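Need the bound structure for magnesium ion, inputs here:
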Amino acid sequence: MSSEWLSVAEIFGEDVFNDAVMQERLPKKVYKKLKQTIEEGKELDLETADVIAHEMKEWAIEKGATHYTHWFQPLTGVTAEKHDSFISAPLPSGKVLMSFSGKELIKGEPDASSFPSGGLRATFEARGYTAWDCTSPAFVRKDAAGAILCIPTAFCSYTGEALDEKTPLLRSMEAINKESIRLLRLFGNTTSKKVTPSVGPEQEYFLVDAKKFLQRKDLIYTGRTLFGAMPPKGQELDDHYFGTIRQRVASYMKDVNEELWKLGVAAKTQHNEVAPAQHELAPIYAEANIAVDHNQIIMKTLKKVACEHGLKCLLHEKPFAGVNGSGKHNNWSITTDDGINMLDPGKTPHENVQFLLVLACILKAVDVHADLLRESAADPGNDHRLGANEAPPAIISIFLGEQLQDVVEQLLSTGEATHSLNGGKLQTGVTTLPDLTKDATDRNRTSPFAFTGNKFEFRMVGSRDSIAGSNVVLNTIVAEAFAEACDVLEKADDFDTAVHSLIKEYLTDHQRIIFNGNGYSDEWVAEAEKRGLPNIKSMVEAIPALTTDKAVELFGKFGVFTKAELESRAEIKYENYAKAINIEAKAMIDIAAKQIIPAVVKYTKELADTVLAVKEAGADASVQAEMLADISGLLTETKAALKKLEAVTEEAAGKEEGKVQSEFYHFSVVPAMEGLRTPVDELEMIVDKEVWPMPSYGDLLFEV
Ligand code: ADP
Ligand code: MG
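Answer from helper R.:
Posting the output first, comments after.
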């Protein structure tokens, strides 16, 4: 018997106010009402809320909680929280009571003026409200601040506009629910009541030693290295991927898992990733809304536990130039309340007409709205990954795999699919090993949007970003495609014929989005251009997708975003981009001027002294002199590049905020940053390691 296993089962969810706790602690009537709210969206009356709040507080206090917080995801990229203690005004006796009302549970009013609203709120009505999202369970989180009851909430303005990631996500989940049910009914399904997107995000991250981290101002201020020459050994051996996990990291992972399990996060898989010091954690998939919240918890936990182990967890998309970056693979499927996965092709997909229609709709949705999907992964950090050599390309395409590709080809050529390729047996050639049943499809690691058996995997998402944005887009664009298909099919006289020709029509019109080859190759870039697929290379070029007529119509039709909300989001993204690059540029200027140039100047003095001393001693000082000349040359280049960067950064600050300013940052400041980095990295290669003012890539990546 494994006691380890038992203890995991015991601790799992122990800090979550989950269904079991609610059933146990709430009066039957109250529990039933709450379930109706969760499952059917019925409004919760204040009296019921009071009872729930009271029980929740009692439970939290037993767990040691002193405070509660409305936990929400504003558009700044991090989870926001303001802690309120449970204490009431002191009584005449001088004592206090611990209280928590239904009103406090349901609604909060954080000072909204300091969160970005993209102009949605004029300052005179700076109010913003947080509203309890009872579909995601409350939990008690323990850290240096003590234990805090965290209540997942949505964040809206006084007039109801979304100021957060969750509100549009919930709206998009309603949209895909409604349209999926319509589609299922057409195929004779009368039993499924609800359809929810299931999401399983794989999270990549780097771990570095905290002491070394603290010697790098670039990591401290920006989360990535702004300078740094490649170590003699990079990742060319790929020996880290799935390699043995080092003990220090293993003990870190153990603690991470334990904390996550207590919080009800089903942490499942962990392994080393391709780059040295890079790792991955994947939970078991959950309903989209919960998956999004859990991913926020995962990121926070990865960082917190790292500190406890003398490590720092880097979630930046590209902490090290020339080394693999980090992303999230957003695994997505749609599932009914009675357990049908609408993306499951079954053994013989060619016969599964419903699946083929769903697939055709998704191809159409992704083709029509490729720009929106691309935008949903746009992030200043992801600009270093997408389109670069080792990451998913910035071009959206779909990988179907051999089996589905074959079915699609049959449909396209003859209008009829008569058979499905199947995987067959994988012969190991070793008699003591069993022959395994092969998947019908091999893996493809270079596609940004890949079909993987019974789900799609969107691989572009940035490692630091909330996965909410991408799922909002996925849910909504697929809802639209379903709705358009249903509009046609509900009116059809002969359903079978109509569905057949609709599938063929969609496949014919949107086949250009399918690509099963190597997405990292140059040939694909050329081919994609021929096919007319957008290749949106950067965040600032991606943002306009949010406010096209097409996007306004799509999101408006399904009540996910109003035009004003889309415009505000675009504005906030421009602002976030400009701020991020401004901080990076300023950090570079600071590091170059105060650390690198002074260190190199000192070193040239040493070298010059050496040259003189060696000459005086009558020996050959030509090597030293040559080094001195090389270093001095690079120092001159560095100084000039620094001046240039200072000038453009200053110019950027004076630009009109929004699109104009962020474009200037992207097209002028970023190249000037690269201009400064080049000579500095060359200097690092030839200057004595002892005098270099910060730990090198080698120190950071290979000495965890
Ligand atoms: P793969 O090996 O194909 O990447 P894994 O089994 O490792 O798949 O799962 C990767 C992630 O996808 C995990 O978070 C997993 O829970 C999730 N996942 C698995 N099946 C589904 C599904 N039907 N819908 C959404 N996510 C899923
Ligand atoms: Mg992976």
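Comments: The chain has a mean pLDDT of 91. The chain has three domains: 11-164, 173-561, 577-702.
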